[in-house]
Design goal:
Length: about 425
């Protein structure tokens, strides 16, 4: 009975200590119910062993044997703890980057169908390459068989584009819902401009004129070309030619169509830059000349001549057109083989534009004011084409006269820049 009574007493003491918040003793300790029962049993059965077991119990109580040594306990206490089973580790949501919302419908379509749109872009680029190759082949008088081969290969690309067209259209319809509507623009009150007082003195009149003056055509063209990536010198020279053209055009009609500035603001194309394989292009739909990354000093004037040819054709149909203007259009039609009443074909357009490059490369200006400009273009174009013959755009004196009148209404003696007179380039 003694071992049982001792165990019961130790059990009650442990429960009482636990209720008070004290730390429970380890199971081998006589203070623990299991240890107390075992200790009492050993004491009753083998009283002679108890003196030998007391040191063992004491060593376990301090953790030297049968448990953790003090230095192990200290090391574990200082070691970082991992999360307990009840702890929840949340991800750091602030460092996760969300996919940016597409800014345009084109970006949205490529997010929705990246593989499809990659195929579409590649086929479109290939088709544009073939278009350029065909045009170059036509301009270079390559054999018809070679040109036909380019067209057959381009048709194969067209077939592939038509096959994926329904899927591309579907992607764009879905992309339209992904692009947010732009916020409405709140109208802002625009203050009325202050009216300038009528000038009373010559000094006031001069200041009044300066305030009312708009930038010249040359300045405006120069600014646009510089913004498109062309050099200041090239931009100013091109601007001088554009201004001379609109002054000549206005004078040719005696002001009936408006001033040079009026015609420029109404009909001159805007100038932009973009990435692309061609050097430049004129879009007659939105009236824009786009200069690509490979543009050179000839590109802008080449594309400008396309627009001037359209102007010349429209002007000839005006009831106020002077007879020499109508004769110029007829001369151009005869030169390129265009029938009267028909629009100029692309190949005919290219012949007139390249002929204008040849005209500039000859360096013979229609007026003294343009002599230095022509001298610059002769230098630039000679570096591009090396010789006049390599341009492969022969022109005759009648067509030179047409180009003259596009830049000077009454061309004077043809001028060659004095520092670089070349006898072979004089007109006959």
């Amino acid at each position: 009975m003694r071992p049982a009574a001792a165990g019961m007493d130790a059990f009650m003491r442990t429960m009482y200590a636990t209720a008070r918040g004290a730390e429970a003793a380890p199971w081998w300790s006589p203070a623990h119910p299991i240890g107390a029962v075992a200790s009492a049993a050993l004491e009753g059965a083998f009283p002679e062993l108890m003196p030998h077991l007391a040191p063992v119990a004491a060593a376990k109580d301090v953790g030297v044997i049968g448990g953790r040594a003090p230095e192990n306990i200290a090391r574990e206490a200082m070691a970082p703890r991992g999360p307990s089973p009840t702890e929840v580790v949340l991800p750091n949501l602030e460092t996760r980057e969300a996919t940016p919302a597409p800014a345009t419908i084109h970006e949205a379509a490529r997010q929705l169908e990246p593989d499809l749109m990659t195929q579409y872009d590649a086929l479109t680029d290939t088709k544009n390459q073939y278009l350029g190759m065909i045009q170059e082949a036509v301009d270079s008088d390559l054999p018809k068989e070679r040109i036909d081969q380019f067209r057959v290969e381009m048709n194969d690309v067209d077939v592939q584009l038509r096959e994926i067209a329904p899927d591309v259209n579907k992607a764009y319809k879905q992309a339209r819902d992904m692009v947010p509507e732009p916020p409405p623009i709140e109208p802002t009150a625009v203050p009325e401009p202050e009216m300038l007082a009528e000038p009373q003195t010559p000094q006031q009149q001069e200041m009044y004129n300066l305030l009312q003056r708009r930038p010249s055509i040359q300045v405006d063209v120069t600014r646009q070309l510089v913004d498109a990536g062309r050099s200041e010198v090239e931009a100013r020279a091109s601007g001088a030619l554009v201004q001379a053209h609109y002054e000549s055009r206005a004078a040719r009609f005696g002001g009936a169509l408006g001033s040079a500035r009026d015609l420029y603001e109404k009909e001159a194309p805007s100038i932009a830059s973009a990435e692309g394989r061609a050097r430049g292009r004129l879009n007659l739909t939105d009236n824009t000349i786009t200069l690509m990354k490979d543009a050179d000093a000839s590109t802008f004037m080449h594309e400008t001549m396309h627009g001037w040819l359209e102007e010349l054709q429209r002007d000839a149909q005006n009831e106020k057109a002077p007879p020499d203007l109508i004769e110029d259009v007829n001369a151009v039609r005869a030169w390129v083989g265009a029938k009267e009443g028909e629009s100029f074909s692309r190949a005919q357009h290219e012949r007139v534009a390249r002929g204008f490059e040849r005209y500039l490369m000859e360096g013979v200006a229609p007026s003294n004011r343009l002599a230095q400009v022509f001298n610059k273009f002769r230098d630039w174009l000679t570096k591009i084409y090396q010789t006049v013959s390599r341009l492969r755009a022969p022109i005759n004196d009648q067509i030179r006269g047409v180009y003259d009148r596009l830049l000077a209404v009454t061309p004077g003696d043809t001028i060659i820049a004095p520092e670089r007179e070349v006898t072979s380039l004089h007109r006959r």
